[in-house]
Amino acid sequence: FCVDPLPHPGVRQYSKELIERELRKFYCGVCNYSTMEGEDSLKGVATGNWGCGVFGGDAQLKFVIQWAAASLAKRPIIHYYRYGERKLAGLDEFIVAVKKSEVTLEGILEIMQCLSPSSGVFTQILASL
């Protein structure tokens, strides 16, 4: 599947509206594919820094959006290609901490409503757990 990212979102990417827009967009991309295959054969998602690089998206924010959308669609992210993105250096530790906290998907989505560009997305989410 192919999902187009929002180009050059700047500070707006942290707004509730744009987070929800990107979440719905990625969810539709993974959900439509999964329902064509049937519940028993849902496959994982291989993805990467969608909307980052030349598009200017925050790599940590985009990861959390993709993880949340794939989770909503009951599709695991089986591989996340980082492409050397330095902001994702703590990704493995972030995933472990989120899973260890046993926060629900709804909890993560609620935390995402309050994100700001002032500090890292991973830091803000972990501080809210």
Automatic annotation (TrEMBL):
Boundaries of every PARG catalytic Macro domain copy: 9-88
Entry superkingdom: Eukaryota
GO CC terms, sorted: cytoplasm; nucleus
InterPro entries: PARG_cat_C, Poly_GlycHdrlase
Example GO BP: ATP generation from poly-ADP-D-ribose
Gene Ontology molecular function: poly(ADP-ribose) glycohydrolase activity
Protein name listed in UniProt: PARG catalytic Macro domain-containing protein
Organism: Perkinsus olseni
